[in-house]
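DM between two lab members

TW: hey, do you still have the 10 kDa heat shock protein, mitochondrial entry open?
JB: yeah, one sec
JB: this one, 104 aa:
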Amino acid sequence: MSFLKNAQSLKPLFDRVLVQRLKPATKTASGIYIPEKNQEKLNQATVIAAGPGVTNTTTGQVIPTSVKAGDKVLLPSFGGNPVKIGEEEYLLYTDKEILAKIEE
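TW: and the structure you got?
JB:
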């Protein structure tokens, strides 16, 4: 049982980034439903929240995360810490684990 009500109540620390994978297509263009086990796992996600950044130990300055809430990102095919909030599944990555920011 989760004590979190929604994803906005979760604030990542340091250089952590909370993302939600994009949902794969559940049916084909012709209308045939794809079973859940046959749906491909997409490596694209939307950033839900990002931490303030990590502190540089030599200068003491905070290095901000390179993404912000609402950005579309490219994720590695493995990794991330799963976080379940209600029925939704989210993933926590460090900023350096995210492969790319998708510009539209």
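TW: got it. The mean pLDDT is 82. Strands lie at 16-21, 44-50, 54-55, 62-63, 72-74, 81-85, 88-94, 100-102.
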